[in-house]
Amino acid sequence: MALAMMASLPFAAAEGEEEDDLLIEEIIEDIDLDAIEYGDVEWDFALSLEEMDPEYIRLANKHYLLDEKYVPEMVKVQKSLDKGGLNYAVTPSGGWWYLQEACAEALHQMAADMAEDIGKKIYLKSAYRAYRTQKTMYNNRLASHNGKDDGWVSKPGASDHQTGLGCDVVPYSWRDKSMNEKMMREPECQWMAEHCQEYGFIIRYPDDKNEITEINTEPWHIRYVGIPVAQYMGENNLCLEEFCWQLQAAIQRFLDRGGDPAVVEKYIQVPTDEGFMPPNA
User: Fold this and answer.
1) What's the whole-model pTM score?
2) Would you call 61 exposed, middle or buried from its count of C-beta atoms within 10 A (0-12, 13-18, 19+)?
3) Are residues 124 and 213 in the same domain?
4) Would residue 94 count as lying in a domain?
5) Active-site residue 218, yes or no?
6) Of the listed 218, 241, 242, 274, which one is catalytic?
7) What is the pLDDT of residues 121-133, one digit of tens each?
């Protein structure tokens, strides 16, 4: 299988490969993929490659682990309200939360629009989280629960927060509370569930996808994937795992029909868990 042959492709470019990656980007930018249907092979997925940023749809869970050295490019999440910033529910030790730039900008806009629409504000409780921090949190959680993984703290490398695209946002009344699924009753969370797709976000761990995400319901955890992907996922009631499996199946069909691997290389995601078999989408 073509995907299996490419299983060794890393999520991030290895040292010394920057020139190759740049060449691939230049090739893709110079080609009108829609006009030529990705060469002589038809691309049969609902979204074109141009509508999906491979960085934004990067999957992180216990079957698709991020490398401990993976750190995305990020910006500070502005907290000066007079500059369009966002309230912090918790201030990290360094004083700032960080997210990838597109995610931070979308979050600011969504927060401003929510305040204008329903007169409610959301507070940022968590954003980017480093691998080392996640490891400490996970081990502490195990220690406090007799070694049992209760689904509330992800393993290191499996956290959506490490992507710099996942963040926890809460209503004012939940700033100092322990978070649980009852938060979905709050108007802020209901507004997000209804409108977040318009800004490129999804609810990362919805209440009807627990068996697939293997994470408890988290109405406060939103994930930036880009507007076209978020809208497609919303229209088809997909979680990120399901979307990624659908995309990988489309890539496999493309390659099986003789499609150019260089066109889809950046979009390929291979499980790091050798025992995990994604369902056929």
Assistant:
1) 0.84
2) buried
3) yes
4) yes
5) yes
6) 218
7) 999 999 999 999 9
